[in-house]
């Protein structure tokens, strides 16, 4: 969780999102996320990640997820943790093509994009 993720956690807390869940592979970063207002901080490599999100949300899953890493694996993890009709905001997708699994209960809408070198 870099600078963008840190701001996402703080803004989510500020607007009253509950629960705020952060994901990172680094234990120190997860601890920082908790200090900044996250209710939970999970290791994104955890094989039981979806189950932990379900437990943290009383089975509802996520209404909104943000992926600020730009990696296909984290994008797909975020999709997998959404509730039906949930929204995924992808910040900084890389050149990796993301192919949505047809079992996801969502529709895709590209709101905007920009690139810089």
TrEMBL record:
<protein>
    <submittedName>
        <fullName>Zn-binding dehydrogenase</fullName>
        <ecNumber>1.1.1.1</ecNumber>
    </submittedName>
</protein>
<dbReference type="InterPro" id="IPR013149">
    <property type="entry name" value="ADH-like_C"/>
</dbReference>
<dbReference type="GO" id="GO:0046872">
    <property type="term" value="F:metal ion binding"/>
</dbReference>
<keyword id="KW-0862">Zinc</keyword>
<comment type="similarity">
    <text>Belongs to the zinc-containing alcohol dehydrogenase family.</text>
</comment>
<keyword id="KW-0479">Metal-binding</keyword>
<feature type="domain" description="Alcohol dehydrogenase-like C-terminal">
    <location>
        <begin position="3"/>
        <end position="101"/>
    </location>
</feature>
<keyword id="KW-0560">Oxidoreductase</keyword>
<dbReference type="Pfam" id="PF00107">
    <property type="entry name" value="ADH_zinc_N"/>
</dbReference>
<dbReference type="InterPro" id="IPR036291">
    <property type="entry name" value="NAD(P)-bd_dom_sf"/>
</dbReference>
<dbReference type="GO" id="GO:0004022">
    <property type="term" value="F:alcohol dehydrogenase (NAD+) activity"/>
</dbReference>
